[in-house]
Amino acid sequence: MSNRWWIYQQERFPIFTNGMLIAALSVSAVSYSALLRDGIPSWGSILAAFGITFLLFLQLRIADEFKDYEEDCRFRAYRPVPRGLVSLRELGYVGIVAAIAQGGLALGFAGVALLPYLFGVWLYLGLMSREFFIPNWLKAHPIIYLVSHMTIMPLIYGLATACDWSVTTGWPPLGLPWFLAVSFCNGIIIEVGRKIRSPKDEEVGVETYSHLWGRKAAVFVWLSICTLTGVLAAIAGRFIGFGYPLALVSWALVGFSGLAAAGFLHHPVAGAGKRLEKLSGLWTLFVYLGLGIIPLVLSQYR
Question: Transmembrane ranges (predicted)?
Fold first, then answer.
């Protein structure tokens, strides 16, 4: 990897940090599907889910680079693409190579069984990158914009779970919609959490939720979604016999999030919004650990 690509990944898509988180989420998705059918996921399903999911998140980043290019040039010239570190054409080639690798992984692991789901995610990603051909209307309706873009999260994790059930039962197991609902809410937690900033950290031309809705409203929405996610995670956990532990962990996280939110509102110093962003990542990690990896490990000792 040349030095400029190393710098790019550090700034826009840290492969090690993202890789560890995506690995946890992918293993959780496959494990949850396997637990629903009282089975154990294969190493092949885990590796296929991780590879396809990791490359999908990379493609999401690349799509954002194309979508936000004009705004980045106007307001965020410090980013890698506007300052000329890498070009959109080069990123486009990376996205194409990633798609070929995804297709190879899907075919090599499950034949054509995964391809319809992979094509479906690609189609939605393409529509997202074009703002569903109604960019101005979506910009004027930030809640609909948020929901429309976060819908790709359950699509991605539905594809990850398909790496298990498509080659075993051939049909999505009962209880899977609750897992997908959790993945949708987790996406919103991360998206809103990373766009809540203190007044000193707001940037001209950057549409944060703290700017659009006000700090109090943005924090209220974030905390409300955290609470909803905790409830959904506990329900999803019941289908794999792990509802009560997840409920306890979720409510502990809600309490901690409430304290963090109150601290941010009372002392919105520079950099304070980063705490909510990091806490959003912890939410995602703990919930997915409890919805797949930990129950799977414990099931081996029963």
Answer: 12-34, 40-60, 81-101, 107-125, 137-159, 171-190, 219-240, 246-267, 279-298
User: What torsion, rounded to 10 degrees, do the Cα atoms 288, 289, 291, 293 define?
Assistant: 130
- Which three-class secondary structure string do you get for 50-99? HHHHHHHHHHHHHHHHHHCHHHHHHHCCCCCCCCCCCCHHHHHHHHHHHH
How is residue 109 written in tokens? 């692991």
- Report the candidate in 102, 117, 108 with the shortest Cα–Cα distance to residue 33: 117
Assign 10 to helix, strand or coil: helix
**Strand positions, DSSP E, 110-269:** none
**Are the C-beta atoms of residues 163 and 32 closer than 8 Å to each other?**
no
Contacts of 128 (CB under 8 A, 6+ apart): 63, 148, 149, 152
Half-sphere exposure of 58 (CA within 13 A, CB side): 25
Name the residue with tokens 């898509």: 13
Q: How far apart are CA 75 and CA 300, in angstroms?
A: 53
- How far is 292 from 289, CA to CA, in rounded Å? 6
What Rg value do the Cα atoms of the chain yield, rounded?
19
The interaxial angle of helices 176-193 and 215-238, nearest 10 deg, is 160
Predicted pLDDT at 200: 84
For residue 264, the one-letter residue type is F
Amino acid at 219: V
Closest CA to 187 of 292, 20, 57: 57
Backbone angles phi, psi at 98, to 5 degrees: -60, -40
CA distances from 42 to 46, 107, 118, 257, 278 (A): 6, 16, 20, 35, 32
Tell if the pTM clears 0.85, that is, is over it: yes
- Which pair of tokens denotes residue 135? 């960019």
pLDDT digits (tens, 9 = 90+) for 178-220: 999 999 999 999 999 989 998 888 887 778 899 889 999 999 9
Band (pLDDT 50/70/90 cuts) for residue 302 is low
